[in-house]
Amino acid sequence: MKDFTNKIAVVTGGASGIGRSLVRQLAEAGCHVAMCDVSEERITESRDLAMQTAALGVKVTTFKADVSKRKQVEAFRDHVLQKHETDHIHLLINNAGMTGSGSFVKDPEDEWQRVFDVCWGGVYNNTRAFLPALKKAPVARIVNVSSANGFFASVGPGMPHTSYSAAKFAVKGFTEALIEDLRVNAPNVQASVVMPGHVGTRILEHSVESGGRHVPEKMRKNLKQFTDLFAAMGLRPEQAAEIILSGVREGKWRILVGADAEAMDRAVRETPELAYTKEFWKERIAPVLSGAAGLKRSQ
Question: Could you tell me the residue ranges of all domains in the chain?
């Protein structure tokens, strides 16, 4: 899919961050876009921003939906096909996610499950709902956004991160398993998994807005500090979106986003048995994150 002109793309979590940047860049490239999110106000803002630079004739539509709810996702699908007057789509980008509720041992089950259901369930629900429409396109691609936490389930010593990490591992494994499944049973459809490192989004703030109990107390109390820290270490959302769409154009099945993601992936592959020791974090991961933050400040 080297050219997005007159294609139809579905983007979940389009209200902010990487999702908003994907919507804007796709529309500018001449792609019609349908997006969903839980915040109707922010997806309206995303649509208005996208239309400012959209190519002539591009249609951008919005729908309020919680991706963890199967019926809401199916309603979103029906809305997309009706509003875009089509029976097919070319691109499904499962981007929606949230963070928080790190401990399987201590956190309440409903809090843990909520994060898992959004980050993994959203990918499953939308892929199930839109697969028939993808199969009807001449060429189509499913793009599932995992995370560096999809191959390294840690954010640092003493900070459990099980719900988000387990979900992102599921997204990665599901996408890799789809490659052969699609090759055999839907050869016009391909799949890509995206694994971003740190990106300067407002996922923490928006996760608090979506039910603040899911974000660990330390992060909740120091929300601005943690948001600023992640922004300092990571790429801008528009940079991440550029890398993702470039990977789609090149037909990549595995898209790493950011030098930190690439370095963490390499470190885990080289010494997997040491990956969850304190020494590994201190010697292999912390320097990568410090270097990323220093490079960002110097730019």
Answer: 8-260
